[in-house]
Please model this.
Amino acid sequence: MLYAPPNAVPRANAFPTSPPSADAVLLTGFYVQPEFRGGGLGRMLVQSVAKDLTRRGVRAIEAFGDAIPGESEPDAAGHHCVVPADFLSSVGFKTVRPHPKWPRLRLELRSAISWKEDVEAALERLLGQVTITTAEPSHVRA
Model:
């Protein structure tokens, strides 16, 4: 997975659904080897990126999806650099600017964090504020 602030991706302006939102990081590349597809690895990668960016204070991830995968030309390494729109939708991205070929999709990061992680973070904050003191019983003397 490759991602960067939109101002670091000048070719993003070539898409008809540009510009990406200023409060989002742009997902610019994503590839899982065919033999590893279909087992949830892609979803786990997106969740890892979401967690990383949330910790950095980023509000959302945006990507230009490929609504008709397979018709695009691969890059020099044989990979398609634009992520299939169907995959993005299946992992929680929502279309913010429709287009027949190159829709722009967005994943709000607060919705990408599972309730379990929210509960764990809340417990950690709570337990971090609790101090445990132990008092020696009055009848024990050293």
About this structure: Strands lie at 2-4, 24-29, 60-66, 83-84, 94-97, 104-108. The helical segments are 41-55, 85-90, 109-112, 115-129. The mean pLDDT is 82.
